[in-house]
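Comment on this:
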Amino acid sequence: MTVRSKARVEGSRYTYDGYLEDLFLALECAELETRRQITANEEPSYFAECMRYVLIRTSINTIARNHIPELIGRAVEMDVWTPRHALSVAAKIPDAAKRVGVYITILRTGKLNKDQQEEAQQLGLEGAMAVEDERKRAEILIALAPQLRMEQRTLAVEKALVAALALQSEQGRTEVLTMLAPQLTEGLLEGALGVEDEQKRAEVLTALAPHLKMEQIQRVLEAALALSDEKGRAKVLAALAPRLTGAQLKQALGAVLGLYERGRARVLRALAPQLTGELLDRTLEALLTAKNVLELPETLTVLAPRLTGEQIERALDMASALPVWGGAEVLAALAPRLKGGQRDRVLGAALALPPWKCAKVLAALAPRLTAKQLDQALAAALALPDEKGRVKMVTALVPYLSEGLLDRTLAGASAVKDEKRRARRPIWPANDFYNVNND
């Protein structure tokens, strides 16, 4: 029997795989015949056949390498290719990452039967774990995991976690962990809690926090509180903050108030929307001892919308002791919460600030000022010798001025000696005022 006749594989039905089986069988037979000829000191005539089949196989692999995964998936969806043909092409792609990419697109089509699906899942998982580059391996495992059976998915996620934690770049770890987090499994959480390096454990828990189930939150909270590194503890608590309620909130706040001040500010900003009553009182009490001038304005500004009654008074007291830049930020944040005499107090404090900071507070305060208070603020603005400062303050007040106060404002504008500056100031809607007066 000749090599060509032996290579006719009965039952191949001339499919792509059948052709490849023919090809490999032909190569095997040609190789055996070539070895026999060499051993018998005959001319190795079948060596040319070997080379021919090897070149064909190389060409097939080259073609497979050039296929675009998305294109293969689309071909299967539209029944241009059979799933079997697509799987066969995928198997010939030498690059592991690209090969797995094809398996992923084929699995997503939903066109595979049970056996084909299991084949693609197994080969995809094996290929993904063979990728050498750690980041690429982690990303491929993350992409493949949703297409796998539960036990395979658990393994893929755990291997992706290992690969992510092996990355040297903190930014790289964070990016991959963020990609991995939505596929949270019990095994992944156990793996995260068991990470020995505290910094990396904090990174994993921070990424997982938004995806935790209710029954998992307490475990992660306790793990966060057990971290000795305050920076890591602050990161995890800040990520957990929106998920905490009741006793967990009190537990977290107690830990937060003992953090270093910059870390405390970060977590309090995250906790602020859930804080009320007693918890707000405890927070304000702790802030009284704050020494970091950066922390207090940031934290008070975030807490401001939650404060009521006596809490607002305490916040105003703290704001008055802050540097100019910080005090203005807090006063502007508190403005919508003020009542009665509190507005007089803040208005007086604002008018004592430099014009550019005063303008910020006035912009928040003006909608809530009485006519008398607006008159007071406008008088102070128009009395400023510095034109630029005057412009900023008046701009903040203009939308809320009565007709009489607008007339005063226009009179103040006409008194400005620098015609060039006045001409390019659109912030006073002078044309509209003139139109009103002409009417």
Q: What stands out?
A: DSSP finds 27 helices and no strands in the chain. The radius of gyration is 36 Å. Residues 1-14, 422-439 have pLDDT under 50 and may be disordered.
